[in-house]
Fold this sequence. Notes:
By secondary structure, this protein is an alpha/beta fold. It is built from 8 helices and 15 strands.
Amino acid sequence: MDESTVNGKPECQRLRKGKDAGIDKINRLPEAILEHILSFLPTVDAVKTSVLCKKWQYLWTSIPNVEFEEDSSSKRELFMNSVERVLLLRGCSHIRRFYIACNVFDDANRVNLWVSAAVRRNVEECSLCLSGIKGPFALPHCLFISTSLTNLELYVAGALKLPSKIDLPNLKYLILMKIKFLDERSTEQLLSCPALQELFVEDCNWSHLRAVTIFTPMLKSLTIRDKDRHRVGCQVMICANNLESIYCKSAFVNDYCLRESCSLMEAVIDVAEFPLSRSREAAYRISKLLQGMRSVKSLELSSKTIEVLTSADEIYIHLLVFGNL
Length: 325
């Protein structure tokens, strides 16, 4: 008997029937399960399943996540048309997570239309990674007054012009990266959302601001990372009565001040690289930040932090007592 024949049937025919049987089993699954399976796929791949059969033609439009990342090797217009086609064909179906990573260039209006479309569909998690920005960039106002938004991640490689009114009553998680803040009042509003529980600020430019107060009564976790990239800093007052953990790795160009929180469990202070000529200034600012941590139960100071503190001997007369360590 020919090796390609098993039980009298060609091998290719047997494999084809097995494949068809597998597809039939998948097709018989409830739509809710199929949608759940599709939710784990990148949006581009989920859309491709529409050609499988009639049942799958619009199944992808119900998956809760819309995620697109511009590939530098792909054609830009094709990418942008794909985003718009997906948002159009989804109709009014709810979006749980909206993620866009792309260059803005001269297409700010198109990018903002995508964001507005997500907000209209009651997006809960919005993550925008935007580069290639020319001049101050303004996102649509509707993003900053959304009642459905719980998570917001903004990576904006440039100046971000925030609206004069920001009202995000249900925002719990906020990540800000690479942003150049332009206005004190709007920056304070964004950083002081009433339900905010976790705040992460990395490598942002505060040089256009003089003083900002972060008032977040529900905040539990605060992470600040910055570098000595901007020579002019800002006074940042942090008022967070329920803060449990703080991590600060900074060149201390900014002057951070923490109003003491009795709930503080863990604090980590590290020092980013900066010129030796600024050591004394940084030492005073670290000491000032430590004053708001007297109730902390676990305090970690990096070797670099201790080295900087010892550069200003006179601050030892003001050494604090950490009664809970």
